[in-house]
């Protein structure tokens, strides 16, 4: 449906003598890329000229000594506990289920056990540009309940014409972070691919607040296809993610943040919001007590106090990010 009018455009381009007279292959590839982008409105589709290109073959999972695995983990994931008992995880690559199973004990020892006891968590995806599709339910599940299982994403693969549903996982290595503690995801214009999918899932499950910039609008899968017997290649997204909650995809347009700020300020804003959240129980309790003690209809005041406390306990206030929002919510 996105290719409507493409054949006519190709026919028109084929008769364009200016294009046919371009002597430099790389320049021709750039012109063709712009033509494709303008026709189908998708900046992810690219034409390149690569005479030295060799298709990459995914390596088999090697047997790596534990100490090397630990070094790899520390190089790709930064974990620390900030002031205020706030967990901070900076993730640059989202590993798949196979790697997670292999390095699971080390992940628990060096990262998860360190941040699990915290009262709030920040996932930093501002530099996350790669990842494995199977890692999406693996990460999301740590911030959901084991039951009921949640349909978090569907991925349609066009070459195989198969749609794969991704669901939350009933069992995990280690304990879950749970659903009640505040969770924030930091994004930038460079956040791409699988990390965008994780952020979009957590946002629409209303489990996380996204802080930062609109993400890149990448894809879950791209194929680089050789054009006939030439050194030209076309990079094409061949799969698309469809969120079961929104019925839409984050691809092309990216994930819009809940709180839009410059990427470099995102962590400071997240910490400020978390500090506001630490004051929430006391503020809500004070408001509830004032109403309960002073409202003209005592039974209604007591009922309101109970409902306010229940709302805080259930995490209903976890997505509050400013004092104005808190004021409106309490009202």
Automatic annotation (TrEMBL):
InterPro entries: ClpP/crotonase-like_dom_sf, Tail-specific_protease
Pfam families: Peptidase_S41, Peptidase_S41_N
Gene3D superfamilies attached to this UniProt entry: 2-enoyl-CoA Hydratase, Chain A, domain 1, 3.30.750.44
Domain Tail specific protease: 65-262
Biological-process GO terms, alphabetical: proteolysis
Single annotated GO MF: retinol binding
Keyword annotations: Receptor
CDD domains membership: Peptidase_S41_IRBP (cd07563)
PANTHER family cross-referenced by the UniProt entry: INTERPHOTORECEPTOR RETINOID-BINDING PROTEIN, RETINOL-BINDING PROTEIN 3
Protein name: Interphotoreceptor retinoid-binding protein
UniProt organism field: Sinibotia superciliaris (golden Chinese loach)
Classification of source organism: Eukaryota, Metazoa, Chordata, Craniata, Vertebrata
Gene: IRBP2
